[in-house]
Design a protein that fits this description.
There is one protein chain. This protein is α+β, with helices and mostly antiparallel strands. The chain has one domain: 2,3-Dihydroxybiphenyl 1,2-Dioxygenase, domain 1 (Roll). It contains two helices and eight strands, in the order βαββββαβββ. The chain has an eight-stranded mixed sheet with strand order 2-3-4-1-5-8-7-6. The longest helix is centred in the first third of the chain and has 11 residues, at 15-25. It is elongated and about 45 Å long. The protein starts with a strand and ends with a strand. 15% of the residues are buried.
């Protein structure tokens, strides 16, 4: 099983306002925007992801390590076979994701692009 770095992301309440802040105030280069906004930060993919309705984002420490996989269902089965609890696979606008926790409880996301 091969795991590749995908991105770091933050949940935001207002995507357009967040894009303006990261672009205009911080000077980060917006590379694309659809369901999420993507920035190139010195070769690292940084994304802004809209929070679910009513979800609080402030001060949550919501950065996530996100690992890209070619076949999400295989990666989930691999982790489960290793004794790791993994969330159900969720279908989202431009792919699929699942998550699990490291031994300290930090969330790690698995991502498969459509």
């Amino acid at each position: 099983m091969r795991f590749l770095f995908d991105c770091v992301f933050y949940y935001v309440r207002d995507l357009e306002k967040a894009i303006a802040f990261y672009s205009n105030t911080l000077g980060l280069k917006l590379t694309s925007s659809d369901a999420v906004a993507r920035f190139d930060v010195d070769g690292v993919l940084f994304e802004l992801v809209p929070a679910r309705h009513g979800e609080e984002t402030r001060g949550r420490g919501n950065a996530r390590l996100c690992l890209k996989v070619e076949e999400l269902s295989q990666a989930v089965e691999y982790l489960k076979a290793s004794g790791i609890r993994v969330s159900e696979i969720q279908k989202v606008e431009n792919g699929k994701l699942a998550s699990f926790n490291d031994p300290d409880g930090n969330e790690i996301c698995l991502w498969q692009y459509d």
